[in-house]
Amino acid sequence: MASNPAPNSTEPVLVVRDLSVTYRTPAGPVRAVNGVSFSLRPGERLGLVGESGSGKTTTALSLMRLLQTSAVIEGGQVLLGGVDLLQLSEEDMREARFAEIALIPQGAMNSLNPMMKVGEQLRDTIRAHRAGSNAKATADTDARIQRALESVELRATVVNSYPHELSGGMKQRVCIAMGILLNPKVIIADEPTSALDVVVQRQVMETLRKVQEALGAAVILVGHDMGLMAQFVDRIGVMYGGKLAEVGPVRGIIKDPLHPYAQLLIKSLPNLETKENFRGIPGLTPSLLNPPSGCMFHPRCPQAMPRCATDVPALVEIKTDRWVSCLLYEGSPS
Ligand SMILES: Nc1ncnc2c1ncn2[C@@H]1O[C@H](COP(=O)(O)OP(=O)(O)O)[C@@H](O)[C@H]1O
Ligand code: SF4
Ligand SMILES: [Mg+2]
Description:
The chain is α/β, with parallel strands linked by helices. It has a single domain (14-329), classed as 3-Layer(aba) Sandwich (Rossmann fold). Helix content is 28%, strand content 23%. It contains 9 helices and 12 strands. The strands form 2 sheets. The chain has an 8-stranded mixed sheet with strand order 6-7-8-3-9-10-12-11, with helices on both faces. It has a 4-stranded antiparallel sheet with strand order 2-1-4-5, covered by helices on one side. Helix 5 packs parallel to helix 6 (198-215). The longest helix has 18 residues, at 198-215. The chain is globular and about 70 Å long. The model is unreliable at 1-8 (pLDDT under 50). Magnesium ion (MG) binds at residues 56-57, 106.
């Protein structure tokens, strides 16, 4: 990718500014991501949480520039080490993927090629990134694959297995190994455990944490299970209707959520120690084809005021590292 001064360790590794993405659909434009801004420090774990359809996957795919052709990035910046990924050529972006920023996509374990052995699929990931197939490159590739498998606690012989010969947890570990093959600075994991049972979920999350710490990579974990998320991440961004409703340290948000939607999300968790999933909150998720005026959340918000139907709240830092997008906090000291 284009060279730029390396960030020092106190600078964020990733800064997303005012990202907006629209899908062109036969029924009209769907603004799936609407002015999303956040930053990620080196080695930090950030969770993006929200109901289905809140724009989490679209955000993740935008950072990787892997959106479908029907999607248009309307604006914003994705600064990785100071370089705006949205401005890179296709070629430079291809080089940045996996080496700088990697995605473990939603449903990854079910999209492994059933006809190819695991080792071939891992090799393909490296090949897609690197030209040349001389003996040294092959030995380097094999060594990388072995290291990656070891770090996700899979035995080396897994390279000779077809996906159907592996359990769900093992397949998900293969997908994590794929994501870390080239030692990225940022790993995005989109609902990495949603298809797994609770015990395996925790084991896979533990592996992801170990791998991330060993690499010193930052992680964006996308999910809808606030309970699981809370145990893994340092900070949480709560998404609603394509926007960030609240961003802050996980403990602060769990103890004292400020945005009314975040408050309902936390309340809907019976107990963070139980293994129940998020049960949902009353009301329908907003239509992004025909979004509500004013604050996206006003039709469902128990604290809505008349002006919430007309005024659009901005995401503002209302106290140190606590960002909230709600008119209730307008004028709060920052
Ligand atoms: N390929 C697509 N074409 C049209 N609309 C889409 C497409 N993918 C997602 N959307 C819409 O974008 C919104 C956000 O979706 P998504 O990013 O997948 O949310 P999440 O990951 O939070 O469930 C939803 O309203 C969804 O219907
Ligand atoms: S701006 Fe109004 S409707 Fe929106 S979350 Fe705040 S109080 Fe509720
Ligand atoms: Mg999703």
